[in-house]
Amino acid sequence: MSAAPGVREPARPGMGAAGRYHLLLASGGRAVQHGWWHREDVARDKFRRWIGEYGSMPDARITLTDDETSDVMATWPDQQ
Question: What is the reported pLDDT for 6?
Fold first, then answer.
């Protein structure tokens, strides 16, 4: 699990700084889980996996963001 919404968790010992690509799973407008990766391809793969794993959660929303640029790279479900 993760820290409170908006609070970045410290990196695990020996893992270096948290990665550039941030994945957020929210349900009902509340953060449920966070993850950070250094490589974009890994983060995008995790994004797809989280859709399969958590997509059936009520009001689930998954967002992939580039923390360096603050660009939202992907969201699920797509905003209509």
Answer: 53
